[in-house]
Amino acid sequence: MLNDRAVVAGQGAGRPGKGEIPGVRGGLAPRDRVRVRIGRRSVLASTVALLLMAGAASAQTAEDQAEEEKATSARRAAQEAAIQLDTIQVTGTRIRGGAVASSVVEIDAARIQAEGFADVGEVIRSVPQNFSGGQNPGVAAGATLGAGGLANQNLTGGSSLNLRGLGPDASLTLLNGRRMSYGGYVQAVDIGAIPVEAVERIDIVPDGASAIYGSDAVGGVGNVVLRRYFDGVALRARYGGTADGGLATRDYSVTAGAEWSGGGLIATYKDVSADPIEAHQRPYTAHLPAPTTIYPGNDLQSGLLSLHHALGQWAELRLDALATRRRQAYSHYYETSAATYNRLTPETTAMLLAPGIEFFLPGDWTLSIGASRGEDELDNLNLGVSVATGVTTPRIHECLCNEHSSYEVGAEGPLLALPAGDMRLATGVGYRRNAFRHVNHLASVTTIDADEASRYAYAEASVPLVGQGNAMRGLRRLELTAAARYEDYDSFGSVNTPKLGLIYGPSADFTLKGTWGESYKAPTLYQLHAGRMAQLVPAAYVGGVGYAPSATVLIQGGGNPDLEAERARTRTVSAVFHPESVPGLQAELTWFRIAYVDRVVQPITNAARALADPNYAPFVDYAPTEAQLAEVIANAQNFFNGTGAPYDPAAVAAIVRYGYTNVAEQQIEGFDLSGSYAMELGDGRLSLRGSVSWLDSTQKTSPLEPSFDVAGTLFNPARVSGRLGGVWSRDTLSLSLFGNYTSGVTNTADGRKTGSFTTLDATLRYASAAPAGLLAGAEISLSAQNLFNRQPPLHVPTGSLHVPYDSTNYSAIGRFVSLSLAKHF
Predict the structure, then answer these.
(1) From CA 787, how far away is CA 760, in angstroms rounded?
(2) Local structure of 53: helix, strand or coil
(3) What value, to the nearest 5°, has the Cα angle with vertex 277 and ends 304 and 130?
(4) Coil, strand or helix: which one is 50?
(5) What is the b/e burial string over 151-175, where b = at least 16 CB atoms within 10 angstroms of the residue's CB?
(6) What's the distance, CA 790 to chain centroid?
(7) CA angle 775–781–786, rounded 5-degree value
(8) For 102-113, b where at least 16 C-beta lie within 10 A, e where not — what string?
């Protein structure tokens, strides 16, 4: 089993039989197996597995429902459980065919096409449970003032998953179940670099999942599942631009694939370039001095290969490979001066190589062995340009170099036959290593060269207590899930994370699900090893009152090798409504609560009041000993004396500890509501779906200070976000219309709340049904995002050179219209 590998559809579930797709099996006795056809893939399942088809109100798409309605008998059996996806393997569990007690959001390829999404980054930004802050294109200067801090910036140009707004380093991103290499300072993963043409579906589990996958899955996990089968060659070209100028986009891709007896492959190459949006092209930013850029120019080349091949009846080989290069170009001013501006041209190269083999053992057991290797190197170049003369001066030229490697062995299979089905177990061990180098090319010095390794073991069990075989009135389904993981790190030691789940189905119309679990996030290598500094300043500079004029304060900042893991406790309860009398109707309401403690922050946010603000007292050592002072200076890579006088330990009144510390607490609570309904309308079919999320989030940075609001404030997640609409389709034609809503946020500097942001997206798509000739396999699509060209809500920025809108919640793109042409040979 591959490192932290999700169990996903079509990724080798067992010994293939004659006429079956290799690697897919139901793990059931032959007399119980039924062949189910979904799209172009076959799945073997028992009556119990059929029960898993209809459920998961939040995950199943309307298109899949249409297929189910054509098979009435299968649907009736499926509604007995009404809890899972339309496949017998899902993200969020390592048990094959296992149930997931968490809510699961599934967005498949048909939905991506129908709604006009051009890349995976656009897809995840449309999900209400996800925050568009963190590492995302368009996040402008000034956004670091939010609780996200350093994470809220567009450093690489990529798109990162940021569930519940907990940060891109607290949401785990997987490609076909494999971890990808971190990028930049804050461990963001560029999910937008994955070619959308190769995507089968995207699964998002917005629930703590460290017991299943390890570190980072505090907010949840997102898994991009690739197509296993693609036949022929497809060419696609897309052109687009905005109504007010800028972001002219050229998007070209070629996808090729082949199927053979025992296997298949898909290969995709994508080339995308987009012009920047300049400040003068929007009326609300026209006051900013040229050449300020509010949305960067971008150039991406991405190649992907995924293949699998069965070795007879006993094993299957798999290989996933991804290589990308992304370049940006944009300009902005620092607040200190308008005489010079910064021209930034960062370039990121990344790769992933993930081979694996799965053996099909007797007794319906499997043994998986896998490895992965990833790299992400950001060459960050920042030139200072004189407005008067045009002379350039290098300000930053650095490499943020990340590496990842992992190895894992795992097994899965039935332990015990129960009246409701098999009790199944998944277990395994593995090793993971991350490395980070920060190279200052201007000074020709490597400031950070660090790595972190961990060894882990996990186990997960699925226990069906009541099912079709022993159902009774008021109790149609009862299943327990349990998972535990032990991980031992080189830096902070070991951590144990459990998770429990319960699924209860009193009738064919209603299902209750609940989870309880613990998650964690290891401190980043930057937080651990960033350059440590010591600075000597007069006591008055940090708010000291009543001290002698000669009194000084020693400030300690930078990384902290003594950091511990961040920890969270998560609870969810979901109610799923799937009335048997109204086929095609599904709704799910989920309550969630996350208690997130020991968060790593720089606790003193206003150094000028370090001695004056009593909330900062836990981070100040008053009357330090000479040994304490000597330790701070000895551990510092740089010592700055800003007093103008020789250093005198006797004159030091305090040590102010400004560096990274495990101290912040965050409480997150909210509700997710999703639903879908499909019906015949005239000569076509109408599929309605929508999702809305309400979020309450508070934080305290010091144990002495009161909690303050995070959700609903500037540069943090809005309290309410949602997306609602529908797709009407008939034969070769489809039309989609979706509305997006983001509530206003409060500017804590002046207490004013911005307006809300509502936009409308539309896509018209035609796919030719011609069996031969020039139009055979042809497709044309016309899409418009923000159809009515809504401007983002405005606020008064804290800096005169910052944009006057919250770039983490609202987009400055405006109306964007694109035309896509494709041909499949």
Answers:
(1) 5
(2) helix
(3) 55
(4) helix
(5) bbbbbbbbbbbbbbbbbbbbbbbbb
(6) 27
(7) 175
(8) bbbbbbbbbbbb
Rounded Cα–Cα distance for residues 771 and 283 (Å): 50
Strand extents, DSSP E, 14-70: 34-38, 41-45
DSSP-assigned states of every residue in 632-687: HHHH-SEEEE-SSS---GGGEEEEEE-S-EEEEEEEEEEEEEEEEEEEEETTEEEE
Residue 405 corresponds to which amino acid?
Answer: S
Cis peptide before 793 (omega within 30 of 0): no
| Both structure tokens of 231 | 């036949």
**Backbone angles phi and psi of 783, in degrees to 5:** -125, 150
Helix spans in 132-281 (H):
210-213
3-state DSSP call for residue 277?
strand
Residue 151 near residue 134, CB atoms below 8 Å: yes
CB 191 within 8 A of CB 173: yes
How does strand 566-577 pair with strand 652-657?
Answer: unpaired
* Total count of residues recorded for the chain: 825
> Among 491, 489, 492, 469, which Cα is nearest to 479's?
469
Residue 90's pLDDT band (cuts 50, 70, 90): low
Higher pLDDT, 479 or 468: 479
- All residues at 6 or more sequence positions from 629 whose CB lies less than 8 Å from its CB, including other chains: 554, 649, 652, 655
Q: What is the pLDDT of residues 708-760, one digit of tens each?
A: 999 999 999 999 999 999 999 999 999 999 999 999 999 998 999 999 999 99
Domains of the chain: 30-309+326-523+564-602+662-824 (2.40.170.20), 529-562+604-657 (no CATH)
Amino acid at 458: Y
pLDDT tens profile 303-349: 999 999 999 999 999 999 999 999 999 998 876 677 899 999 999 99
**Given this model, what pLDDT does residue 774 score?**
85
- Say if residue 628 is exposed, middle or buried (CB neighbours under 10 Å; 0-12, 13-18, 19+): middle
Are the C-beta atoms of residues 410 and 358 closer than 8 Å to each other? no
